[in-house]
Each structure stands twice: as structure tokens, then as C-alpha cells.
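Subject: sequence -> C-alpha cells, single chain

Hey, anyone have a minute? Need the predicted structure for the following. Not urgent.
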Amino acid sequence: MNFTENTILDNAALLTKERTVGELVRAAQSGDREAFGLLFERYRSTIFMLAMRRVRNADEADELTQDVFIQAMQKIDQLRVPEAFGGWLRQIVHRMALNRITRNRNALACDPETLEATCLATGSPETEAEDREQAATIRVHLGRLGAMDQETLTAFYLQSKSLLEMSNEFEAPVGTIKRRLHVARKRLAKEMEPLQAV
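Reply:
Had a minute. Here:
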């Protein structure tokens, strides 16, 4: 390779580094895979750290990071404001992490001896059946609420997260989380009012 070829390659690398996020996103939306690769390199460590905060496992976070970028590559045409790419990725991380955590918690299994040793019989079979029926009813009504209400109630009651953990996860002040919980509880109660009247 001669001096001219080196200079051209150096200038091309310099131009690539100088491209803004908006320019790279627009190029990626036009089918430029190299531009998307540059976005991946620029945001990979940030997305990995966010994923790590959510799933608390390096292997899971690495897998989640890959999944986030695959999703972003498939849906990049839907991004209306190219400069908002970073925030858009954070939303994808948050949503996919919640899905992954929920799916993994439901997939927990244990042998019958361990299960029997950890379960305490506290009531009659009728009481347990009523409790299961009530829990199923609450889940149905919870599913009718908006996404934010569902996420807030699920994090606090089903995942036993503290207000501080929720504040970090939802990237909102603790006061806002308290307000969201209050509002979500009221909406759930209102959703269940017809049931209470029966």
C-alpha cells in the first residue's frame, strides 16, 4: 500500500468518527450496515452496562445486549427522530430486560422434596383455592391497566422491589415512583369495582 492509499483510508476513518448519531442512524435506515456497525460500537458498552444493572449477570447482560441490537437493527426504520437513538436503545433494553426477568422467574423449577420442605400449609384447601382465584382475578384486571401501571405494580408487589430500586430501574425520582404506585393502585381498585359489588 502506498502513501496515497494510506491517506485515503485515514481520511475515511476520520470522516466516519466525525459522523453524528443522526447521520449514522439515517444511513442505517437507508440500509448502510457499516453505519449500524458504527452505532453498535459507539453504544455497545453503555447498553451492556444498562443490561447489567437490570439482569445482574454478565452472561445474561451480554446476551441481552446482542438481542437489543438485533431488535434495533430490525426496527430502526421505526425511529422517527434519529438523534434520539440512545434513548430509544435504553427503552429497548428496559423492555427486553423486563421480559427476560419475568420469563426467567416463571421458569424456576425445583424438585418435589425442596418444594415440600419450603411450603407451609396455612389454610384449608378451600382457602387456598379462593386465594388462587383471587390472584388470577387480580392478574386479569392488572392486564387491563396501562403498561406503566402494570410495570409499577408488578415491580413493587410481584418482584418485591424497593422504591429506590424502582427509581433506578424506571429512571425516575422516588417521589414519582410513589405517585405512580398510588395512581396505579387506584386504577386497579377502580377496575375491580364491579367485581367488589357482586
